[in-house]
Design goal:
- By secondary structure, the protein is α/β, with parallel strands linked by helices.
- The chain has 2 domains: 166 residues, Rossmann fold; 137 residues, Argininosuccinate synthetase, chain A, domain 2 (Alpha-Beta Complex), CATH 3.90.1260.10.
- The strands form 3 sheets. It has a 5-stranded parallel sheet with strand order 3-2-1-4-5, with helices on both faces.
- Helix 9 packs antiparallel against helix 10.
Length: 408
């Protein structure tokens, strides 16, 4: 690969990406453009601007953007229409943020005339795959630089030495080993490594940042109502809100009640297993609520088929194939299934649990007249069930008759 002339770097302002910024300048002698995304990670982003300026980046080459609404509207909500869970548990908080970051990297590269993009993901994890698959899907000619796969800064000591040699500020707590690594956005926090590397040892409580311990949550349950239109949440307690505002509010409520903690050993796309501590308070409430409104508005056949498609859809997102044709095909089917998923769900939040306790919809398929234990006034003839059962039992009876004939 020829040396890039201008590189757009996904830049957090932290030590690692600051080292990458300086390494790009010294290794390639190229111009660096930084992109820092506000995805709702809860951190002040202006220090990233000051750090980039300190490292010689021109003000016009520093991009700091609030993309929370786009993140929730165009990435999180479509994923939640599918009720996506990776390996049955993980709500894909890190996975779903990467295609949006890559999208903006490619767009900024086009706007600034850059011929390459760079990221700070290591060569052991999933994020390198997610960033790069998305980048190539959006611009097949882009160069992608992954310093962790190229440089010889293979230890914390070497990284700190490089930082000191290049006058990169080092926070005091960065001079020692961090107890664990954290990734955060509006959907979740993810903690991995160090004190969490032994999956047989319970994670210390200080790892959790967004949720109270369920044992310390309020002793009184809290009830809320979430309104849905075509599968997307649009209101809380009757108040219309934007997508990011809804998720922010659900995070506050879920965190208060200790909802959304997950201790997971997962199978990474690159082949190894890793242990992560995830907190997805608002997402956990939203998933239960979405399931609740689907339960009365979706036909059984459509809902069961969607549940069969879901693991494949979740795996595509986890593995970095958001911009693949197969994900888009599945999304089209999922979105079609949500045409009548509109109504209101009543949720009970209590001691780590988000429970759907009521649902209403003008599109409801639930017929009290048909299911009542009282007189149904002829809505359902129970005698019809006899023929239904006989027809469904026919093949089972034929199998049993054959086995009996053969002495099986």
């Amino acid at each position: 690969m020829s040396a890039p002339k201008k590189v757009v770097l996904a830049y957090s302002g932290g030590l690692d990406t600051s080292i990458i910024l300086k390494w790009l300048q010294t290794e390639y002698g190229c111009e660096v453009v930084t992109f820092t995304a506000d995805l709702g990670q809860g951190e002040e982003l202006e220090p990233a601007r000051k750090k980039a300026e300190l490292l010689g980046i021109k003000p016009e080459n520093i991009h700091i953007e609030d993309i929370r609404e786009e993140f929730v509207r165009d990435f999180v909500f479509p994923m939640f229409r599918a009720n996506a869970l990776y390996e049955g548990q993980y709500l894909l908080g890190t996975s779903i943020a990467r295609p949006l970051i890559s999208k903006r990297l490619i767009e900024i590269a086009a706007e600034t005339g850059a011929d390459a993009v760079a990221h700070g993901a290591t060569g052991k994890g999933n994020d390198q795959v997610r960033f790069e698959l998305a980048a190539y899907a959006l611009n097949p000619d882009i160069k992608v630089i992954a310093p962790w796969r190229e440089w010889n800064l293979t230890s914390r000591t070497r990284l700190l030495d490089f930082a000191e040699q290049n006058q990169i500020p080092i926070a005091k707590d960065k001079r020692g080993e961090a107890p664990f690594s954290v990734d955060a956005n509006l959907l979740h926090t993810s903690s991995e490594g160090k004190v969490l590397e032994d999956p047989g040892v319970e994670a210390p409580d200080y790892v959790y940042q967004r949720t109270r311990h369920p044992e310390d949550a309020p002793n009184t349950p809290e009830y809320i109502e979430i309104g849905f239109e075509k599968g997307d949440a649009v209101s809380i307690d009757g108040e219309a809100m934007s997508p990011a505002t809804i998720l922010t509010r659900l995070n506050e409520l879920g965190g208060k009640h200790g909802i959304g903690r997950l201790d997971l050993v997962e199978g990474r796309f690159v082949g190894m297993k890793s242990r992560g501590i995830y907190e997805t308070p608002g997402g956990t409430v939203l998933l239960a609520a979405h399931r609740g409104i689907e339960s009365i508005t979706m036909d059984r056949g459509a809902m069961h088929l969607k549940d069969e498609l879901m693991p494949r859809y979740a795996e595509l997102i986890y593995n970095g194939f958001w911009y693949s044709p197969e994900r888009e095909m599945l999304q089209a089917a999922i979105d079609l299934s949500q045409a009548h998923v509109t109504g209101t769900v009543r949720m009970k939040l209590y001691k780590g649990l988000a429970s759907c306790v009521g649902r209403r919809s003008d599109y409801s398929l639930y017929s009290e007249e048909h299911v009542t234990f009282e007189d149904d006034a002829g809505a359902y003839d129970q005698k019809d069930a006899a023929g239904f059962i006989r027809l469904n039992a026919l093949r089972l009876r034929l199998l049993a008759m054959r086995n009996r004939r053969l002495g099986g």
